[in-house]
Amino acid sequence: MRAPLSRAGERLVQGGAGVLGSPLKASLLVTLWLGLESFVLGPFSHILLNEFGDGVYPYFKALASGALGPGSHYWFPNVAAGVDRLANSLLYPQAVPLLAWVLPGWAAYQVFLFIHFFFCCYFTARLCTDHLKTSAPAGILAGFAVACGTPFTGGIGNSVFPFVLWAFDKLLDEDRGRGLLGAALLGLFFSVFASAVVSMPFCFAWALLWLGLVRKRLSLRAWVLGAVMGIFASAPHLQEVWSMAVHAKGSHRAGWGALLTCSSPDFLKGLGQGFAWAWGYCGVSVTVAVLGLLACRLRVKGFAWVYGLLLFTIAAAGTGEWFKTCAGLASGTLGGLRMHRFFLILPLAAGLAGAAGLELLAGRRWIFLLATAVLFGQSAYSKKKVLWEFAFQGGYTANFESPVLRELAAKRRPQDPFRVVTFTHGLLPGYAAAYGLESLDGYINLYPRAYFRFWGKVIEPVIKREPYLEEYFGKWGGQVYLFLRSVDDWPGGVVFSQHYRLPLLSLANMRYVISKHPLEDPAFKLLTPQKPWKDMSRREHVWTRVKENFTGKTYLFIYENTAAFPRAFLAPRLRELPDEDSLWDALAAASPAELKDAVYVERSRSPGKLPGRPFSRGRVELDLYRTDELLLSVEADGPGFLVVSNSLDSCWVCRVDGKERPLFPAYGAFWGVVLEKGDRKVEFNYAPPYRLAAPE
Question: What is the pTM of this model?
Fold first, then answer.
């Protein structure tokens, strides 16, 4: 009779062999492992923050929650004093808001994450076994590597891309009617997950090479089905692309310039960057692929084009910006569009080459075991950072179910809108948007360059103290944050005016500040008293953080800014500055009284003098406040300047008593309108050329 231990060992070996022979079982295990910290505690689980939980997810949550009101909205007021929704890829038919409409927010995220990992792993394995004719273990290794290496950014178009390749190949064998219908449905499916600028064009180009070189199935039928799929994939994004084209030239991205010049040294520099990305994202796959090449002495049999496609992807990722510059596209509408996005396909290209390499290493089973162990170790090590982030920042409930932020959001009134900012030490500005709050800060893809200049003056004191921000914010600006490297020098409270210009924030209707650390300013009124963190014991620190993961963040300092300007106000005079730099310098030096007394404007964009003596008495009332429409009543005993501190966008149209009147850039970044004596009703409508319907 065999010992129980021997029988258990035999069952374990048999079970392992069963998993290695089944890409489906293996992919489910990989998915559960990679997403473990985000699945295991349900609503209290971890949520990825970087470029998702601090940006895209809160904004999609605001869309799905109905915080913008009924109807279809083209303006998004919840970030950076307002931006165009479509220009920031905040589409309604996207996976996150679609899931969030039918599921609780935490469940929507977990389903989204499951799709990300599972589609990466399983369908990469199927590409290997079905199309490259590799063994199941080779496909499983490739799938594991692709799931580990595919970045969670720009939607998850690159995550579902292996499925799109696999499914499209199947459609080529269907009859004409089913093939066309399948191509249309596949295109719509891809459009839900993909970004029109981050993933879609690069995936389509790569798919063309895959079909032509590796699969050798680039027939007339493939072109027809590809065209149908492309039309249905891109159609839901046409407004988005149009919007980006309208807003690109005046955006903060327009000042980014080229990453690489059109020179031989920069070409080599870009190529080196491509190889560095390949190693950084796909080190295990690349290593196995190279070992396979060496083992077969470069006689790769049927895998030559797989290796060629990897080299193309490396070169395209690294030199994309070089080619953009050489083609004369580094400025203008396409200036801020980064052409290195092939790096998002690198994990797939390397994973397929790694599977080929493992086949060329036939008989060396230990290579598979070692490579799998390394991937497991790397993913386990990455969870160390996740655990720190979970402990310090909190999970889903901590950040998106805070009773304190809900109570703050309940203060909103249609006739008295206000904005908030977040002191970015241990908090992220994006959280505020998830509660429907309008924010002056945020992590945003495309916003007006004038607002970028405005925010640069808000944080100029801290930029001078911390020079790294000159590059980090000054050259990029995607993170509109109240930066501060550390609060250690101010344990009792950060003196706000030493780091940021409160008069400019007050001008922009900043009524509340959200913080995890005490702040000090005469204009601030603390609404949520807390025991100072420095006076709490280590046990209290740990308990507070643990409790917040189940109850939502409660250890928050909410300050009311008693110096906040209203959203709309009247000013009696104009102060003209000779040029743009002079305007921003004057704004930085202005006191609240000076900002109230006169509207600052660059001379070349000045509306000119008032038609008569300025008003001495006047008032503004907000009659209607909707996302894409504002209606104000004004009364004044003379002409004046109406200011609305919403971010200036050329698509806003102003009508005074039914007649259109031009807007001018008040204080460089906001709406300004000249009012004449007797004007009563002022209406603002967001009317971009790509709008399909009038606001409700």
Answer: 0.91
